[in-house]
């Protein structure tokens, strides 16, 4: 069920529990700003999620409230994971779903990294 992008942060969301280690995840990378883990229901050969360590509902919330250090650290972590997975050549896709029209289901900002295969056009209608 898509979320409302303007909702307040819910500490009990599934990715908050993953960050706290209350739910297992297949860790790909971690630093001071971000945690990356493979998606439980992969939509491509490689499907990894990168989440900020801070409590942000969505890209909208993060871009409005996060510090420059948090934003810089998170963006660098996404790039690092893609490079570490060997995706730069032949390429990959980033996706952040936001709110109802974006189809966002988990109310903690996450960037999807898709790769390992040709990914087709941008949007399925
Ligand atoms: P959204 O639709 O919010 O952009 O994407 C949420 C993603 O989180 C989905 O791709 C879904 O498969 C993934 N997901 C949901 N619950 C879990 C979980 O408990 N563990 C992992 N690794 N991924 C999850």
TrEMBL record:
**Signal peptide stretch:** none
Q: Name one GO molecular function term.
A: catalytic activity
Recorded hits in PROSITE patterns, A to Z, give: HIT_1, HIT_2
Motif Histidine triad motif: chain residues: 108-112
Coiled coil where? none
Q: Entry's InterPro entries?
A: Histidine_triad_CS, Histidine_triad_HIT, HIT-like, HIT-like_sf
Name the residues annotated as catalytic in the UniProt entry: 110 (tele-amp-histidine intermediate)
State what protein this is by name: HIT domain-containing protein
Taxonomically, what lineage is the organism? Bacteria, Pseudomonadati, Pseudomonadota, Alphaproteobacteria, Sphingomonadales
């Amino acid at each position: 069920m898509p979320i409302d992008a303007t909702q307040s942060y819910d500490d009990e969301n599934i990715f908050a529990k993953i960050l706290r280690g209350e739910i297992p995840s297949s860790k790909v990378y971690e630093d001071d700003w971000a945690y990356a883990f493979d998606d439980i229901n992969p939509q491509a050969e490689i499907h990894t999620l990168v989440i900020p360590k801070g409590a942000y509902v969505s890209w909208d919330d993060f871009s409005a409230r996060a510090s420059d250090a948090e934003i810089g650290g998170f963006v660098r972590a996404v790039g690092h994971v893609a490079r570490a997975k060997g995706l730069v050549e032949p390429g990959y896709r980033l996706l952040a779903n936001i709110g109802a029209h974006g189809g966002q289901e988990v109310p903690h900002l996450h960037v999807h990294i898709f790769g390992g295969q040709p990914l087709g056009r941008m949007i399925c209608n």
